């Protein structure tokens, strides 16, 4: 095991100080998902990162999905998982499973894990206090109970923060029609971040970031101005599953978020590297 000297420890802390000062008392929204949510080692790193950030005065809001957990539960009850255009088809039976898994199992496990690492967390879902009010998504193919966000109520989130809690939010929403809707977690995180006027929105993914060559991680593009996005789409650099993620980043920036980042959740402590160093571990959009 490599021995780290006291000098190295002190230098790491001093190098992080300007970033701690920059984000002190500011809000950072983290969308948590992908491999970092299923790999136990990475999960431990994420939980400890979030608690550390909270301890130095950075207000973290954790927004999460839970696709693998939903798939697993649907398999157990004999319901086939169906996806249309990258979105989960959500019929009446499926929305009940989605609500149970996201707002119950996954959300409370994350709250428990944060508390095991010494933090204070409060589990919420989009239904609580009408944090997310949605309407049925209009598309060429009926997606069932999949929703688009109509509005976000920030008061329950800000109340949790002001009382010293890390809000942990699952992305099921209420509709004005009284029905429950499934909301894409990236979309929800972007809208919540913009409504909170967050300093940063971080989307955790299973790739290094935006690549010039999708098969070569050495071609990582570290920074993109939102005005460049249409050109990057036209040239095919932004394509496939990256399109909706980057659209969320662009929307968040245009709605007032200072910076958004797509980071590599496969890298341990990637959140700390992104926020508290000048290295970064993905692509930032400004």
Structure explained in plain terms:
By secondary structure, the protein is of the alpha/beta class. It has a single domain, classed as Acetylglutamate kinase-like (Carbamate kinase), CATH 3.40.1160. The chain contains ten helices and 14 strands. It has helices spanning about 5-25, 35-40, 40-55, 65-75, 90-115, 155-160, 185-195, 230-235, 240-255, 270-275; strands spanning about 25-30, 60-65, 85, 85-90, 120-125, 130-135, 145-150, 165-170, 170-175, 180, 200-205, 225, 260-265, 280-285. Helix 4 crosses helix 5 (about 90-115) and helix 7 (about 185-195) packs parallel to helix 9 (about 240-255). The model has no long low-confidence stretch (mean pLDDT about 90).
List keywords for this structure.
14 strands, 10 helices, single chain, eight-stranded mixed sheet, 286 residues, alpha/beta, Carbamate kinase
Separation of termini?
Answer: 39 Å
CATH fold name, please?
Carbamate kinase
- The side-by-side strand order for the widest beta sheet comes to 5-8-2-1-11-13-14-12
Range of helix content? 40-55%
Along the chain, the helix and strand elements come as HEHHEHEEHEEEHEEEHEEHHEHE
Query: What class would the helix/strand composition place it in?
Result: alpha/beta
Form type:
globular
């Amino acid at each position: 095991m490599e021995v780290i000297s006291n000098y190295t420890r002190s230098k790491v802390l001093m190098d992080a100080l300007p970033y701690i000062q920059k984000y002190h008392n500011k809000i950072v929204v983290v969308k948590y998902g992908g491999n970092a949510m299923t790999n136990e080692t990475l999960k431990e790193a994420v939980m400890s990162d979030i608690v550390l950030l909270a301890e130095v005065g950075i207000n973290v809001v954790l927004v999460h999905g839970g696709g693998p957990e939903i798939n697993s539960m649907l398999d157990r009850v004999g319901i086939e998982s169906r996806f249309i255009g990258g979105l989960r088809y959500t019929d009446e039976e499926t929305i009940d499973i989605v609500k149970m898994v996201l707002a119950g199992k996954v959300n409370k496990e994350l709250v428990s894990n944060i508390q095991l690492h010494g933090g204070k967390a409060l589990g919420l879902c989009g239904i609580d206090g009408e944090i997310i009010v949605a309407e049925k998504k209009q598309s060429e193919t009926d997606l069932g109970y999949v929703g688009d966000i109509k509005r976000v109520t920030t008061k329950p989130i800000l109340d949790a923060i002001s009382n010293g809690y890390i809000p942990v939010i699952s992305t099921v929403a209420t509709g004005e029609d009284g029905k429950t809707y499934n909301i894409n977690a990236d979309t929800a995180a972007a809208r919540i971040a913009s409504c909170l006027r967050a300093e940063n929105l971080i989307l955790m993914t299973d790739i290094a970031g935006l690549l010039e060559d999708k098969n070569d991680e050495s071609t990582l593009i570290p920074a993109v101005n939102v005005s460049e996005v249409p050109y990057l789409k036209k040239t095919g650099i932004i394509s496939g599953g990256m399109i909706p993620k980057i659209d969320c980043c662009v929307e968040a920036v245009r709605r007032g978020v200072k910076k958004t980042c797509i980071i590599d959740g496969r890298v341990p402590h990637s959140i700390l590297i992104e926020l508290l160093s000048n290295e970064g571990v993905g692509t930032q959009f400004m």
